[in-house]
Amino acid sequence: MWGQTRVVTTDKAIAFLQELLDAEVEALEPLKGGDWSVAYGFKADGRNLVARFGRHVDDFQKDRAASRFSSIDLPVPDVVEIAPTPEGYCCVSQRLYGEPIDDVGPDQMRGLVPAVLRLWDSLRKADISFWIAELGAPEQTWTEQLLSVDEENERVHGWHDRMRASPIGIEPFEKGMGRLRELARDCPDAQFLQHNDLLHWNVLVQGDRITAVFDWGCAGLGDFLYDLAIFEFYRPWMPSVAVVDWAGVTRRHYQEIGLDVPDFDLRLKCYLTHVGLTGMAYCAFIDDEAELLRVAERLGDVSL
Predict the structure, then answer these.
(1) How far is 284 from 59, CA to CA, in rounded Å?
(2) What pLDDT digit, counting tens, does each position of 232-274 carry?
(3) Which of these, 258, 253, 267, lies nearest to 118 by C-alpha position?
(4) Is the Cβ–Cβ distance between 273 and 183 less than 8 Å?
(5) pTM, entire model
(6) Domains defined for the chain, CATH in brackets
(7) What is the mean pLDDT of residues 272-284?
(8) Cα angle, residue 270 at apex, residues 267 and 272 outer, rounded to 5°
(9) Which one of 25, 69, 224, 238 is CB 3.0 to 4.6 Å from 192, fit for a cystine?
(10) Distance (Å, rounded) from C-alpha 89 to C-alpha 85?
(11) Cα–Cα distance, 198 to 101 (Å, whole number)
(12) The pLDDT value given to residue 34
């Protein structure tokens, strides 16, 4: 079957890409992919490219829109082609190289802090009119987007029942939702470009430089502090990420550049809570009870 993670065969991928690009495909290799697509690196017409196969064309359309913002501090691969497949879509893009930021050691991570801050600044400063022109304006306010974490959708569904049936139950989630409702009403109705998934092998680095930012399927418009919240929430999962006090260095950075960020702590706590709730819903959806428990425990810590 096409269009599902880790299902597209090498032979099918080669045949499809050769017809799509009208070129010989060489050196096809599987890449570490996301939850919603399967990725291959390859060469064609002397170019180093990546092909991702998935069911959701909107993910790939976001990749194309995000490429408009590519810069030294926010290097986004150029999208070459988006095309339908027998059961989904394929996105062919420029291949950029580096090591996933998730896998670097503590010393290298400390050296990457200025680059991460510049990346976040680039997202915050991005002219979102390009994004809106390509994809349309959000149908919900930022607060509504936050509170919709309690809703199921076509991708992530059935998780309420699975969570209720799990050993941990749904009470931790409901308690977190109550906290989110309290905090969200005091957050600004912001509209800044967000990647929303900068960990999980979506950022490549070399030395103290960021060399690629891809997989924009979770991206949207909202408060620029949300990407910080993801780093903060998942610090315990990644020892190298945990060596940095991301909230502290970000706060100092904003002070140094003269950026006033009202209610910094309240907003960050709100988004930490939302990250935890999103994580719980997804873990229940994929029936990962061990990870569900771990995320719930972290949610309890950050939402107090």
Answers:
(1) 22
(2) 999 999 999 999 999 999 999 999 999 999 999 999 999 999 9
(3) 253
(4) yes
(5) 0.93
(6) 10-94 (3.30.200.20), 99-302 (3.90.1200.10)
(7) 97
(8) 110
(9) 224
(10) 5
(11) 9
(12) 67
Query: At what angle are helices 289-302 and 226-233 packed, to 10 degrees?
Result: 120
Tell me the residue type at 32.
K
Q: What is the pLDDT of residue 273?
A: 98
Q: What string of DSSP letters covers 181-199? A: HHHHTTS----EEE-S--S
Phi and psi at 24, nearest 5°, equal: -70, 130
For residue 118, give both structure tokens.
């510049």
